[in-house]
């Protein structure tokens, strides 16, 4: 969807895994080195991609790097450092999160056949199911913010410069905001969840992420409408920083002729 | 019914125009085009617009009955 050939996933996915294994704070020198190497790999990929596209008269259709080369902020083009930072963050912030969120949604569908069948027979409900997965399984469960002016928040005084932590996963189960907050309602209407956070720093990739999730779910269910968990082992998650992700999700399905 | 979108609160989540696609639409930057405006809502779109307002994570949409 951003102009990177699908087969490049075999290079990007290990890079992103190595990056977050080190980014989570594992002090193991090998993991720290792998993080550095993966970051270098991603940046070199984009340096080369930008070189191939530079100087072309028109942006390549459906190619984000090419479009960014033709973009302007106010009256100037983007600098090389800005281009590289944007594309690198897109890979780091975009691959692991969307994949992680899909893991929880697919696990839900594997273990809740009623919801799965609803989406198979009524694909128009898939966007609502994607939003509900972001509410119910909020993988970016919270984030820090710095207070910019003295303020009282619901009776709690906050001082300029204080750091606060917003636990959006809890807000997403707020009984004052949601009917049946602890239930996954596959076709939930009016779902103002904070799965992409809120305010001026809300997730920039939100639209891309939800579109990717909708397409992945739609295409998967078209090809594999019936599937189940391939293990009875307890769910294993990793939760470095402020993001949850399933370590693995074995799925099985029957092949019919 | 009238719909008002608070430009200071709206950050472009896009949940409103997803909920009411036949009435609300978006600009090149992904913001609802009604951002910072007050618009009349025809009766046939009222239900979808109520859902749009309730879907906004920023509580940026205010509805007032005529």
Description:
The complex is a heterodimer of chains A (257) and B (66). Chain A is mainly alpha-helical and 257 residues long. In chain A, strands 1-2 form a two-stranded antiparallel ribbon. In chain A, 24% of the residues are buried. The two termini of chain A are 32 Å apart. In chain A, α1 crosses α2, α1 packs across α4 (80-111) and α6 crosses α8 (206-223). Chain A has 8 helices and 10 strands. The longest helix of chain A has 32 residues, at 80-111. With 66 residues, chain B is an alpha+beta fold. Chain B has one domain: Alpha-Beta Plaits. In chain B, 23% of the residues lie in helices and 17% in strands. Chain B is built from 2 helices and 3 strands, in the order βαβαβ. Chain B has helices spanning 15-19, 46-55, and strands at residues 2-5, 38-40, 61-64. Chain B has a 3-stranded antiparallel β-sheet with strand order 2-1-3, with helices on one face. The longest helix of chain B is centred in the C-terminal third of the chain and has 10 residues, at 46-55. Chain B starts with a strand and ends with a strand. At the A-B interface, loops of A face α1 and α2 of B.
Q: How would the global form of chain A be characterised?
A: globular
SS class of chain B: alpha+beta
Mean pLDDT of chain A: 92
Give, in spatial order, the strands making up the sheet with the most strands of chain A: 1-2
Low-confidence stretches of chain B: none
Question: Number of domains in the coordinates of chain B?
Answer: 1
Q: How many strands in all of chain B?
A: 3
